[in-house]
Design a protein that fits this description.
This protein has helices spanning 2-23, 26-43, 45-58, 62-74, 80-92, 96-106, 113-129, 133-146, 150-160, 166-179, 184-196, 200-211, 218-230, 234-244, 257-273. By secondary structure, it is mainly alpha-helical. The protein has a domain at 216-275.
């Protein structure tokens, strides 16, 4: 069926339009064009909805993006790719229970290797958000064994800092930094690991480089603010936490706006105590 649609949309109709133009049958051409675009919209409706979803997602309009991808998901015979996007957008919208239901619903469906890889990433993110840290890490370890990537290191490296072994987190995040020293999430993971292991000088070096590149996610500024607190530089810490609170938060952020508000209050009190 898909092959027939492709032949109709991308071969038969274009050839027909060219023939009609050469024959000068312009009165016939107009209804054929209308029919072509009508059929194109019907056949490509799922992809059109995904395009609109992606457009709004990039602009931070998560709920609007979610409405479009939900409509695509609900179409009869919607693709695995659509389901994977839907799961990811549910996670970004903090709708973890719904994401879990979709994960269970599609887990047994046939997938390509690439789709299964993306499915496992989504499942690992879901398990992290449900506080199943060990299960999430187990999936990430399988994925890393299959092949390194910046995206994997970005999430795997952070979740390791929540696990039982900071030594493992340090090893992986230093490996990740060697793999890609330019990725901001990897830099933040390494800086956070240095904070947690008490290596403030190395953490300072990382955050100095990271913040010079103006990251667009709140964790970088939150963690830098915490580092400044540990180094008793409360003024700089306050500047960073205020910057953190201007960044976009979503369901896959590792901190919440409430965490940032608490840090702001803590730094304000500490600053007041030394004046």
């Amino acid at each position: 069926m898909k092959r027939l649609r492709s032949i109709l949309i991308y071969l038969l109709f274009p050839v027909t339009l060219i023939i009609l133009i050469f024959m000068g049958l312009y009165l016939v051409l107009i209804p054929v064009i209308i029919l072509y675009f009508t059929l194109f919209t019907i056949f490509q409706y799922e992809n059109i909805l995904k395009i609109f979803s992606g457009y709004h997602s990039k602009r931070g309009k998560i709920n609007k993006s979610l409405r479009y991808i939900y409509r695509a998901y609900k179409l009869k015979n919607s693709t695995i790719h659509t389901s994977l996007i839907f799961i990811y957008m549910l996670l970004k919208a903090s709708k973890y229970e719904q994401a879990g239901k979709i994960i269970s619903a599609i887990e047994k469906r046939e997938m390509t290797n690439f789709e299964f890889h993306q499915f496992k990433i989504n499942k690992a993110l879901y398990l992290w958000k449900k506080n199943s840290i060990r299960d999430s890490l187990s999936i990430y370890e399988e994925l890393i064994a299959e092949g390194e990537s910046t995206v994997l290191y970005g999430s795997y490296g952070y979740i390791l800092t929540l696990g039982d072994s900071l030594a493992k987190a340090l090893e992986v995040n230093e490996t990740a930094y060697k793999y890609n020293q330019n990725d901001k999430a990897i830099m933040d993971n390494l800086g956070l690991t240095y904070i947690k292991t008490g290596d403030k000088d190395k953490a300072f070096d990382i955050y100095e480089k990271l913040l010079a590149r103006a990251p667009k996610f709140p964790e970088a500024y939150y963690n830098a603010a915490e580092l400044m607190r540990l180094m008793h530089d409360y003024d700089t810490g306050l500047r960073y936490i205020k910057k953190c609170m201007t960044m976009p938060f979503n369901g896959l952020s590792t901190i919440t706006i409430k965490d940032a508000e608490k840090k702001l209050d803590q730094l304000n009190r500490l600053q007041g105590s030394v004046r």
